[in-house]
Design a protein that fits this description.
This protein has six helices and ten strands, in the order αβααββαββαβαββββ. By secondary structure, the chain is α+β, with helices and mostly antiparallel strands. A hairpin with a 2-residue loop joins β8 and β9. It is globular and about 60 Å long.
Amino acid sequence: MEQLYKRYLKESKAIRVENGIVMIPDISGYTNFVNSICIEAGRYITRELLSVILAANSTGLEVSEIEGDAILFYKFGPKPPVEAIVRQYEEMLSAFNAKLREIEDIVGHRLDLSLKLIAHYGSFSEYTIGTFKKLYGEPVVRAHALLKNNVESNTYILLTDSLATLQAAEQSDDFFLIEYDQQNIYTHHKKTKHGTDYQTSIRQVSLQPNFV
């Protein structure tokens, strides 16, 4: 017990607690996909889709974990502009859709899969277990919790209020939702604990490969 306490005291002096962003791109429809396809094909398709998401990381995000159908990205530093997060998501979505269409052409039918993104900003820490880097802190828990929501869309960005506004609002229940429909249009509105306050705007977006 004494050795454990000494190790704690030593490590606590080197703890790095910083502000940063946590981003989780997550494949929508993954559970039904796994239950409807053989293991060999399923693992290959999953690997291909996650690989193009990783390759589309153009903002220097670090990878903490690959969690089945999702990737836990993070980056310490100042809060990024919402536009940069939207652009990063659209690059990942473009690459994901291109690879999905390629796979669907091979298998001969549509796969009901899409991509959503959860993003949160706050103070958290990083620690190492063996060769693995793990994250600890409220933003990590909050981001994972927000994956379980009642958003009907399968293709969207959900940003917490602490990320989408200038104020420090880590404990706020407010969040911003950007949904993408089949016509490549998005609607942008704000959800709050008091209801839904729609601030809707629409624009045409290109979700083709090499989105710029």
